[in-house]
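User: I need a structural model of Anaphase-promoting complex subunit from Musa troglodytarum for a docking pre-check later this week. Nothing fancy, just the predicted structure tokens so I can convert them on my end. Input:
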Amino acid sequence: MASSRSKRVEYDRFIPFRSTMDMDYARFALTTPSRPRRDGSILSPSSVAYQKLLDECILKNMTRILAFKSAPDTSASQLPQFDEPIRLQKKQQRQISKEPERVLDAPGMLDEDGLNLLDWGSKNMLAIALGDKVCLWDDANKSTKVLLEAVEGSGPITSISWSPDSTVLAVALGNSVLALVDPATGQDVNVTEDDENLTPVLSLAWRSNSILTAGRSDGTVVDYDFRKDDTSICFYNGHRRGVCSLKWSDNRRYLASGGHDKLVHIWDACMPVSHRHPRRHQWLHRISSHTSIVKALDWCPTEATYWPGGGRHDHCIKFWNTVNGSCLNSIDAGSEVCALLWDKNKSELVTSHGFPKNQLTLWNYPSMTRAAELFGHSSRVHFLAGSPLGGVVASAAADETLKFWNIFETPKPTKPELPFARFNIMRAKWKTFLVLDMKIHCWQSCTETFGGIKVATHFHGGNDCKRLRVAQRSLVELKWQHIFMEVWLQAPKPQDKM
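Assistant: Understood. Predicted structure tokens for Anaphase-promoting complex subunit:
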């Protein structure tokens, strides 16, 4: 009768059994240095449990390198199930709601090409023009109010635009008058004179808090500075018909304009002007590849030289390089493109469309694949505006509704940097600079204290004095870090000793 006792092979106690040795563990045990806890602290219970589990699963509770007998049989069920293949978790795609999160009535919304009646300011205030009225939506407290109403005969309102700091709202009236309105009081801050020779303003774009660019229905584009008596300071001549879209680049150097004449112009504000016409700018690039009016314009936030333009009836979105004026890409959107908006925090853009679906389309850039399509309007979606906080996009359509969509990804809040957060780094950097650069074999020295740093300079004239002045300027530059101090490194008097 065979014995039920398992046979174990015993070997010589002076000769290790290599087939039962774990060479990986042996290498780990020999090469890993021991790191005792110098602070004398005690591991937490969770750390102890984790270390115990790690020993059981990975190290198999091994404590010796050499083996002098065969390993005991171990049931597979007793081992923790950590040998299963690790499945890579797919990145969860962002869920975009197909329904608007809020819908507001917009009675009196004009269904006309070339107007700009919606804008969202940096103070989270949305302005919309409805016929002869301008209404404000305060997204913080979810309230509305009527900001102003045009007097009889001066309407309708053709364009509105917030200043970069949202302290004033520019309002263009149908009688060619351009007004700056205080959103708190509703009173006019500045108003241009009523001139019968001027045509209505169709588009507005702020170059700065004091300079406003306006495009009129006769094709003229003018820069206005309301601080001066002669408010018209610069002219851009190139369009033959109404200018229905204007956009300044983020660096405020390039201006893109699209018009009813199917032309797109790129203007360089830094381009030299003619002596005969010192206030007249010449276009940098003229683009005539669109076959319909160009209403949708916006600059790419990640590439300062790229910008897309959407034609109304040619159903195309084109990307252009402002350096050489070349077309980088052209996408057939499948329907008329009415408005276009970039996400400032991610490489995405949203377009609004008209016939036949009247939808909003979210695109991934630069692949230009459709990420989502949102349906909800029953008529052409004329205008888009993005929240300054990110995430939400407002759309206004000819069906007299204003809808808010949670389309873009909401940026994660960042912690504000403390005023002196980088002071220690700069202090160490300038300290190293001074010690290394000013260490000269000389016979005189002086010592000054700055921000707790003792700065020793050695010099005897010549090039050393130049180095001293460089060090002095470097220390004064630290005022940029809100350290209002002055450091004077002066040569010691002849009687001073080392």
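Before docking, keep this in mind: The longest helix spans residues 45-59.
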